[in-house]
Amino acid sequence: MASASVQAEFKVVSILDTDLYKFTMQQAIFEYYPTVQVVYRFTHRDKHRQFSRACIEKFREALNSFADIQLTQDERAWLQDKCKYFKPEYLDYLQSYRFKPEQISVTFLPSSDDPDMGSVKLEARGPWLETVLWEVPLMACLCEMYFQYADRDWDYTGQEEQATHKAASLLDARCIFSEFGTRRRRSFVTQDLVVRGIIKARDAHEWKEGFFGTSNVYLAMRYNLNVIGTIAHEWFMGVAALGDYKDAARTALDLWSKLYRDSLSVTLTDTFSTEVFYREFDDRRANQWKALRQDSGDPKVFAPRAKRMYEERGIDYTQKAIIFSDGLDYEKAKELNEQCQLLGFKCSFGIGTWLTNDFKKKSSGYKEQSKALNIVIKLGSIDGKECVKISDELTKNTGVPEVVAKVKEMYQI
Fold this sequence. Notes:
Blueprint: H1 20-32, E1 37-44, E2 51-52, H2 53-64, H3 73-82, H4 88-96, E3 104-110, E4 117-127, H5 128-131, H6 135-149, H7 159-172, E5 177-179, H8 188-204, E6 211-214, H9 217-223, H10 233-242, H11 248-260, E7 266-268, H12 274-280, H13 283-288, E8 291-294, H14 302-312, E9 321-324, H15 330-343, E10 346-351, H16 353-356, E11 359-360, E12 369-370, E13 375-382, E14 385-386, H17 401-411
Parallel strand pairs: 5-6, 5-10, 7-8, 8-9, 9-10
Antiparallel strand pairs: 1-4, 1-13, 2-4, 3-4, 11-12, 13-14
């Protein structure tokens, strides 16, 4: 069994080793906003947890390896076959695409107590069309470097078996779920082990339809799985900052629908709060979009509120679905699944960190939790205009405070 005590050189497996939505986002940008310039900014939500200087230096070194990867002919053929919504013109662009490490700035900020420990400032700058692909692999790479050079009190013991047990429990509870764990995984090895463990549980279970797929394009290709993705917060954030906030959701939804038709019709609701979203989600759009994704706030109030929203528009909510994706584990998924069954709502679950970064400390005899990183990278500005996200959970708000306040006042929230 592999051990974290053996330091392996970081290697990018494939350009497809990322979440599907980064490619669907890139195609939308390719179609509508090919020239705009952006800044992505990193946030570490756990302010008391520090990075080591050595970890950040290794992270800087790892970034250089991204320049060497490109879409292969076999990968393109797979995308053409499995993801019919990608246009040939976009796939031509993707095949010519190369990561540019010079677009990433990494600044280590030492603490006053220990110059070898501190925080990190991380930004990606450049054309939106290019920098959009950095977000997920940057986070995954930083997590991997952290757990290889800063926190090494763990190993891979039992990871595949644990994933098999978790997946079997979800299937027993009749929870339809997908693996969403790329961005905050402990390592690529971890995610690969987890997906293999889930497949083992699926193959042994009488209800195989419960495991719906993965958001990771490379692993979907490697293991012949469905690849899953939804519209992103950054699409709403960027469209809003470039245009009119008062009509941002409608514009973002309609541009997406024009490009993807019925292929990708699951929408997030919480970029500027779910209540604001529902104001703009009129009868036509509510009929057109197949599902809602809950990603912040209290998940227990989401389905009853969605049911009321559809009923107010005269829409049969039992033909719609909800995808829950916020900090899920078995107990949360089981409880929400039972609630939706009682209401008559279809539902499924996108589960990330609980699957791909659930470890125990070796020093505790594998009893104490080895805490995962709580990190995000969000769209900071677009063509010089600051972007904001006003979540259903206050701790997930992003953006310059004065701009957040201005937008909240505009939306009357």
